UniProtKB/TrEMBL annotation:
Keywords: Aminotransferase, Pyridoxal phosphate, Transferase
Protein name (Swiss-Prot/TrEMBL): Methionine aminotransferase
Molecular function as annotated in GO: transaminase activity
Cofactor(s) this protein requires: pyridoxal 5'-phosphate
Superkingdom assignment: Bacteria
Species the sequence originates in: Dokdonia ponticola
All residue ranges annotated as the Aminotransferase class I/classII large domain in the record: 26-376
Pfam families documented for this protein: Aminotran_1_2
Length: 380
């Protein structure tokens, strides 16, 4: 049978490639963004209790009300928003599904979507498979600040959506209040939908505050915000996240959600609904990961890598330009094969795969793993 691929130029994810290499060469895996430690036993117990109590059939399409209620309460308490749990919250199969569904619901053939690169690798395939056109804007190393003048100049009558990510994967940067106010001015008097990927919202460091789109009413009125319980509660394999948006946008989102996913794992929703009632479960996350970041950076401070401490997420970029001039993909592969440590080369996320000689390392690991990794990095 003959067929024409909708994504002819999309190869295997770099995360899959590096994870497989780490497995093949028995390397320390600091590539994929998953925590290397277990979930809170209390959360395990809540899921088990929910299953034993009979919550094993379909959940409501947009999520059980008690969980949507807790999500809205968390958002509204933290950011001064006013999301309605009945009509403005949807529970999703992770944040990636939320992102894909938002794009699918609104991007038509030849619509333009502005993407700030480096960018999480699910954005562009979702745009392309829906017939949209990616308008990439490259953020420059080493600070990766957004040049909003360039963003404004990229807007055309065909611009349907703008995607932002804060705290930012893979760079660890965060958008500021000034960034949000500037974006507010750029988008006013347009019909552009803002898609804000905020999966690392609770992982910010050094007193920095997460500037959620939800804090800015003139942005929130045109925006989807996506988030992840997997990132927040060390449960990436449970594939549970959510999206919030004004009712008029969420109505269209749920049309796609209903006929692609319908509903999300019921016992897990029951567990998260209960777990969210204790805010320290997510409010303490920044301090927890800052200790991990600080330990990792202290352990490698005598290495030949250069670094700017990450401001958020559980990723740290390391500049290897004083070690070798080789391409970052080749260097990352060599580190796995010869040194036994896996990272993510960041050129794969950049426009035209521009190589800034940066590797991304995940520090969401046990102290023992970080110590072993540091020993290898210090010897390079």
């Amino acid at each position: 049978m003959k067929n024409t691929s909708k994504l002819p130029n999309v190869a295997s994810s770099i995360f899959s490639v590096m994870a497989q290499m780490a497995h093949t060469y028995d390397a320390i895996n600091l590539s994929q963004g998953f925590p290397g430690f277990d979930t809170d036993p209390k959360l395990h117990a809540l899921v088990t209790e929910a299953m034993a109590s009979g919550y094993n059939q379909y959940a409501p399409m947009h999520g059980i009300y008690s969980l949507r209620e807790q999500i809205a309460l968390k958002m509204n308490t933290l950011y001064g928003s006013a999301y309605d749990p009945e009509n403005e919250v949807t529970v999703t199969v992770g944040a990636t599904q939320a992102l894909y569904t938002a794009i699918s619901a609104f991007v038509h053939q030849d619509d333009e979507v502005i993407v700030l690169k480096p960018a999480y690798d699910s954005y562009e395939p979702a745009i392309l498979v829906n017939g949209g056109k990616v308008v990439p804007i490259q953020l420059e190393a080493p600070d990766y600040k957004v040049n909003w003048k360039v963003v404004k100049e990229a807007i055309t009558p065909a611009t349907k959506m703008l995607i932002i990510n804060t705290p930012h994967n893979p760079t660890g940067t965060v958008l500021t209040k000034g960034d949000m106010l500037t974006l507010e001015k750029i988008l006013e008097n347009t019909d552009i939908i803002l898609l804000s990927d905020e999966v690392y919202e609770h992982i910010v460091f050094d007193g920095v505050k997460h500037e959620s789109v939800a804090k800015y009413p003139r942005l929130a009125e045109r925006a989807f915000i996506t988030a992840s319980f997997g990132k927040t509660f060390h449960t990436t394999g449970w594939r549970t996240g959510y999206a919030v948006a004004p009712k008029y946008l969420m109505k269209e989102f749920q049309k796609v959600h209903e006929f692609s996913v319908f509903s999300v794992h019921h016992p897990t929703q029951k567990a998260f609904a209960q777990y969210l009632k204790t805010p320290r479960h997510y409010l303490a996350l920044g301090d927890f990961y800052q200790r991990k970041r600080d330990l990792f950076l202290d352990l490698i401070k005598e290495s030949r890598f250069n670094m700017t401490p990450s401001s958020g997420t559980y990723f740290q970029l390391l500049d290897y330009s004083e070690i070798t001039t080789e391409n970052d993909v080749l260097f990352a592969e060599r580190l796995v094969k010869e040194k036994g440590i896996a990272s993510i080369p960041t050129s794969v996320f950049n426009l035209d795969q521009e190589d800034f000689k940066m590797l991304r390392f995940c520090f969401a690991k046990t102290d023992e793993t970080l110590e072993q990794a540091a020993e290898i990095l210090n010897a390079i």
